[in-house]
Every structure is written in structure tokens, then in C-alpha cells.
Design goal:
Layout: E1 3-8, E2 14-20, E3 24-31, H1 34-38, H2 45-66, E4 76-82, H3 86-103, E5 107-111, H4 112-117, E6 130-135, E7 140-147, E8 150-156, H5 162-173, H6 179-187, H7 212-226, H8 234-237, H9 242-271, E9 275-279, H10 286-298, E10 302-304, H11 308-311, H12 316-328
Parallel strand pairs: 1-4, 4-5, 6-9, 9-10
Antiparallel strand pairs: 1-2, 2-3, 6-7, 7-8
Helix pairs in contact: 2-3, 5-6, 5-7, 5-9, 6-9, 9-10
Length: 345
């Protein structure tokens, strides 16, 4: 019998989870920081780090208690060591190293991106190989996933990640943070065909993405419509313009989803791999799920998307992957340092 404690602090969520025997997720606790960062329209790294320090022990304690075990029952500790905000990662890694040393149990280093790719395994099995799309605030990557530890990176973003674009456009429109849910709520009453925003790289070969241009297109549209000179004026001129704001959000969301879906479907078709797994916070978006489902059915591709709680950053996916590395005997030592730029594939 094994109990793996997973710890995730790569960005602004502080998460801990306990996994039993690689199959049973006994607990999964996540501490969010939305209220802290909302006033800034995005994540402030130093504030995120301070909050991690404040809550990491209570959240871990709650996860262990909910699993109905004690710290002494733990078999190993798996922790996200990168990529992410370096200060946030440092909090999680330092805490995990301390627990590993005190309890005299193995320490396991897990890559955050790899965790997202396998988050679906908390709910169902997916035959390998598959096309994996990780789409979040910090990453928009396409992989061929052959097995655990075996990945081919076949596409990534040249500039902003999709989630980052959602956050930036939400801030420009005065919708608040986090941007993904805010844009989705606003877009619900808008017409996605009212404003035609560009689909960057949609007609070019390859599987790379670009989302910086669409953010600029949104700003340019509002500037031209209301004859303003500075981006800071946009939230003010859009006050009371709920219909316009909804159409902008709907057009923007549709453009981003079209890009994500088309590139992913092209990757599956060109590689001949008829299984697609989508993960990361943007995978919670209902339009993305709907459009991906429609297009995969059309091309006879199976699509798998975790439930929303496993799309966003969570420690369950870290514990699951940690268990796999535990069984392989792949451990870290107390010299483990976080790597903000680490990658896979």
C-alpha cells in the first residue's frame, strides 16, 4: 500500500493531494488567490509567493487529514519543480524537501507540463500514443505523447499563451481576473460573428500558435471605434456599452478557440494519431470543449478532456505522476532546485 503526497505551487494555486496505490485520490485541496490578484488584472509574483508561504502547510495538513491518514503514513512526496514562477516553485520545492528529510521518505520531482498531460488519468485511461494539447495561462503546447517520459513537442506559441491572452483582453475590457471565466461569461450574450478578429498562423503549415496579435486587434478595434489614444482609457469608454463589450469578448473567444481546434485537429490528422487529450486551465472553456468535440467527431478522432477541477492546476495530477516515478524508482535528492523554464519533449 502506498500513499503519495502531491504538492503543486507553480503559479497562484497552492495545492496538495493524497493518492492511494496510484488509483484512489483520497483528497485534493486547492487554495486560490483570485481576490489577491484581481485588483491588478493579473498575477503579481511576489504576492503569489507570500501567499504560498502562508497557506502551504495548512493546505497540506488539510489534504492529509481528509485522506484519513497522518504524515507518518506517507510513502513519498511528489512536487512540481517547474516550469512556473520561480518564487512560487521555490516555496513548494523547499517545503517538500523539508518533509522528505523529516519523514525520511523519497522525494519525486514532477514537471508541471507533464502533470497536465496525464491529468486525464485521474478519471480514465487513454490509449497511447495520443496528441496532447496543454493550454493554460503560461503554456500553449502540442505534443505527441508516446508514454510517460516520452514526448515530442510538435507545436508551441511564438508569443502569448492562450490563457495569457484571455487575461490580457479581460484586463483591457475591465472584466477582472481570472480572464478565462470572465471572458466566457461576458461572451455568453455576445455575437461571435459581429467582429472578425484575426486567426494568426491559421493558414500556415505546422502546429505553432500566436495569440499576441489578437490582443492587439482587440485594442485597435476599441481605439478606432471610440477614437481614443491610450489603452488605459478602454475600460472607461466601455462602461455602459455592455452589448459592444459582449460582442468583443465573443469574437475574441471564437478566434482563440478556432486556432486551438484547427491546429490540434491538423496535428492528429497529419500524424495519424486519432486520440486527443486537452488539459490546462483553458480546457475548462465550454466553447473550446464544444468545438473540439464537433470537429473530432467529424474527423473520427476521440477527444478526452478532464473535468474542470483536473484541468486547472491541481496536486492530484502531480501525485499520480509521482506514483508512476515512484514505481520506477526515479527519485530526486535534497539538492533539487526549481527550474522556471524547464520543458519536456
Amino acid at each position: 500500500m502506498s500513499y503519495i503526497l502531491g504538492i503543486e505551487t507553480s503559479c497562484d494555486e497552492t495545492a496538495a493531494a493524497v493518492l492511494k496505490d496510484g488509483r484512489h485520490l483520497l483528497s485534493g485541496i486547492v487554495g486560490y488567490q483570485w481576490e489577491i490578484h484581481n485588483r491588478y488584472g493579473g498575477i503579481v509574483p511576489e504576492l503569489a509567493c507570500r501567499r504560498h508561504i502562508e497557506v502551504i502547510y495548512p493546505i497540506t495538513e488539510e489534504a492529509v487529514k481528509k485522506a484519513d491518514i497522518t504524515l507518518n503514513n506517507l510513502t513519498a512526496i511528489a512536487v512540481t519543480s517547474g516550469p512556473g514562477l520561480i518564487g512560487a516553485l521555490l516555496v513548494g520545492v523547499s517545503f517538500a524537501k523539508s518533509l522528505s528529510y523529516a519523514l525520511k521518505i523519497p522525494l519525486i520531482s514532477v514537471n508541471h507540463l507533464e502533470g497536465h498531460l496525464w491529468a486525464i488519468s485521474l478519471e480514465k485511461r487513454v490509449q497511447r500514443p495520443f496528441i496532447g494539447l496543454v493550454v493554460s495561462g503560461g503554456h500553449t503546447n502540442l505534443y505527441i505523447v508516446e508514454d510517460i517520459g516520452r514526448y515530442q513537442l510538435i507545436g508551441s506559441t511564438f508569443d502569448d499563451a492562450a490563457g495569457e491572452a484571455f487575461d490580457k483582453v479581460a484586463k483591457v475590457l475591465g472584466l477582472g481576473y481570472p480572464g478565462g471565466p470572465a471572458i466566457e461569461r461576458c461572451a455568453a450574450s455576445g455575437d461571435p460573428k459581429a467582429i472578425a478578429f484575426p486567426r494568426a498562423l491559421s493558414k500556415k503549415k505546422g502546429f505553432d500558435f500566436s495569440f499576441s496579435g489578437i490582443k492587439t486587434a482587440v485594442i485597435s478595434y476599441v481605439r478606432d471605434r471610440y477614437a481614443i489614444s491610450h489603452v488605459d482609457e478602454i475600460p472607461d469608454v466601455l462602461k455602459g456599452e455592455e452589448r459592444v463589450k459582449a460582442d468583443i469578448a465573443a469574437g475574441f473567444q471564437q478566434a482563440v478557440v478556432d486556432i486551438l481546434v484547427s491546429k490540434t485537429i491538423n496535428a492528429a490528422c497529419e500524424t495519424g494519431i486519432n486520440r486527443v487529450v486537452i488539459s490546462g486551465g483553458v480546457a475548462c472553456n465550454r466553447l473550446l470543449r464544444k468545438e473540439m468535440d464537433l470537429q473530432t467527431q467529424k474527423h473520427k478522432i476521440k477527444v478526452y478532456v478532464p473535468g474542470p477541477k483536473y484541468c486547472t492546476d491541481n496536486a492530484g495530477m502531480i501525485a499520480w505522476l509521482g506514483y508512476k516515478y515512484y514505481k520506477k524508482g526515479i527519485f530526486a535528492d535534497l539538492r533539487l532546485n526549481p527550474d522556471a523554464q524547464s520543458s519536456i519533449g
